[in-house]
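Incident log, support desk, overnight shift.

02:14 A customer reports that sequence design results differ from what the structure should imply. Their input is reproduced verbatim below. On-call engineer (initials T.W.) acknowledged and began investigating.
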């Protein structure tokens, strides 16, 4: 039976080209036709948020449909192939690994007998070219995305294929709502990566860090930022990670992977 460790992508392993290159090109082309790029881009982001609020999480990440729908609604004579733009910018400096040692860590986990998978809310056609360009696609047996399975994080059904093939040991991610809460709900070890933790927290073991009051307050503020809502009454039990790592390399020292 496979022992799975799953990973989020954006903010956890890599930086994609959307904010730094894809959306700026869209904005530039809109502006070149004399339209208000700020207004149009705000409408694009608002449509994403509207779909999320309406529990249309899969549709919320279909950037081809969102962007081109906005062009039609505002009668802007442009169309965009978002996948082609991602591929166009799938090279440095527009994309990057968030830590140099990520490939080495993934290779070590595989050598220790773990099966690795990506569980991301980005569509496969947007995510895989970036993974491939950064040299990490070969470490993952599965790349699970919303349009493939009909749901998106934090809906735990996105992990169903993982459970059909083995045990979910841990999920690693940077978000409270999409990653930590989902992993906790699945009964897996939730590993939150927080690269900006202070030195006082770094002196603690990863499993001790979630009990630090300052870290818990940080998590509450992060939740508000991610969701726009106040933390739920059961935040401490449902939304705090089991372990906190400041660097991907710390994964190799966790008891769950040794």
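02:41 Re-run completed on a clean worker. Output:
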């Amino acid at each position: 039976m496979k022992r799975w460790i799953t990973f989020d992508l954006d903010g956890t392993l890599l930086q994609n080209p959307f904010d730094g290159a894809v959306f700026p090109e869209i904005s530039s082309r809109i502006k070149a036709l004399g339209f208000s790029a700020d207004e149009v881009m705000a409408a694009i982001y608002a449509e994403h948020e509207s779909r999320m609020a309406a529990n249309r999480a899969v549709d919320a990440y279909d950037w081809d449909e969102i962007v081109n729908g906005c062009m039609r609604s505002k009668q802007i004579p442009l169309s965009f192939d978002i996948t082609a733009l991602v591929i166009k910018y799938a090279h440095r400096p527009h994309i990057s690994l968030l830590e140099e040692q990520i490939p080495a860590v993934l290779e070590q986990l595989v050598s220790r007998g773990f099966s690795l998978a990506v569980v991301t809310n980005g569509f496969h056609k947007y995510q895989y070219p970036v993974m491939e360009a950064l040299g990490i696609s070969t470490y993952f047996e599965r790349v699970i995305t919303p349009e493939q399975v009909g749901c998106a994080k934090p809906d735990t059904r996105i992990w169903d294929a993982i459970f059909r093939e083995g045990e979910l040991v841990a999920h690693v991610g940077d978000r409270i709502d999409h990653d930590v809460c989902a992993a906790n709900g699945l009964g897996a070890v939730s590993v939150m990566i927080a690269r900006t933790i202070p030195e006082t927290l770094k002196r603690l073991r990863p499993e001790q860090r979630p009990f630090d009051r300052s870290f818990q307050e940080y998590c509450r503020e992060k939740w508000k930022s991610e969701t726009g809502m106040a933390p739920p009454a059961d935040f401490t039990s449902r939304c705090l990670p089991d372990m906190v790592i400041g660097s991907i390399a710390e994964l190799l020292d966790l008891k769950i992977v040794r």
